[in-house]
Amino acid sequence: MTTRLENTMNLYLEGIRDGKAREAVTKYTGARYTQHSTGVRDGIEGFVEFFEPFIARNPKRDIQILRAIEDGQYVFLHVYQSLNDGESEWVTTDFFDTDENGKIIEHWDVISKYAPQTPSGHSSIDGPTEIADLDKTEVNKQIIRDLIRDVLTGEKPANIDNYISSEQYIQHKTEVPDGFEHFKPLVLAEDRPLIYQEIVLLVGQGNFVATLCKASWEGQPLAQVDIFRLEAGKVVEHWDNAEPVPPEDEWVNSGKF
After folding, report:
1. Maximum pairwise Cα distance, the chain
2. Fewest CB within a 10 Å sphere: which of 2, 163, 187, 192?
3. Which domain, by its residues, includes 19?
């Protein structure tokens, strides 16, 4: 495990799970810590100010890092949180930028409620976690760039068949069953409520690619995270996480992106 991956995981596990907020954020962040979680101020003090009361409110914290992707200076984590014996359950998707020493210097996140059951019997987080096909990292990243440009932003939606497997498409989105035949009409509908605008971050390693995009849902600004698993040049599995972007007057930092 690399230093940057260890640092991002330990900020979660030591700082939040183990309740050592100040110790962890001091140890694992760099000369700056720019924060895009809109309720958390920048810097060490902003992290402590937010998480010490969070830890006090939630004395029982089960935090599991499900998937981790490292791509150069960037790290992505897909995390499950159960608080107070399941009183609340959350899925968090976090992107980190790191400095030359592997210390965290910037953080983006999207958080939503955990879903135990999708239409096809999955949960919002289960499925493969192992990274494979490291030699295909750059090719797979380009496939996802093209998928978002052509299909999800609507430039060339007819190209959807080039990107999604018609033989196997496992869907962890809570409203959509498995299968390309269910996903395709939703994406191509003229009145679809979810509109992608631009890619903010794209992080890939082998067969996994994660993206943070500016989007909107029926006109409401949205931070949209998607995790794609690819085989043989096509997407075969998909997880997502979305969070409305609050009004600017509610931000305590520079904003969600």
Report:
1. 51
2. 2
3. 3-117
Distance CA 132, CA 109 (A): 25
* Mean pLDDT on 194-212: 98
| Euclidean distance between CA atoms 218 and 19, whole angstroms | 39
Residues 102 and 196 in one domain: no
Cα 65 from Cα 170, distance rounded (Å): 21
Angstrom CA distances, 44 to 21, 163, 210, 255, stand at: 9, 41, 27, 17
Does residue 253 sit within a domain?
A: no
Average pLDDT over residues 54-64: 98
Give a yes or no: residue 69 inside a domain.
yes
Asked if 73 and 97 touch (Cβ cutoff 8 Å), the reply is: yes
Domain identity same for 94 and 138: no
Task: State the helix-helix crossing angle for 21-28 and 43-57, rounded to 10 degrees.
Answer: 150
User: How high is the pLDDT of residue 205?
Assistant: 98
Please check whether residues 166 and 80 belong to one and the same domain: no
Global pTM value: 0.97
Look-up: residue for tokens 């995270």?
225
The position carrying tokens 């979305």 is 242
Q: What residue has token string 């409520």? A: 193
Q: Is the pLDDT of residue 125 over 90?
A: yes
User: Is residue 79 within 8 Å of residue 94, measured between CB atoms?
Assistant: yes
pLDDT of residue 1: 85
Kindly state the average pLDDT of the residues 153-167: 95
Q: What gap in Å lies between CA 3 and CA 8, rounded to an integer?
A: 9
* Alpha carbon distances (Å) from 13 to 18, 20, 176, 229, 237: 6, 9, 32, 25, 27
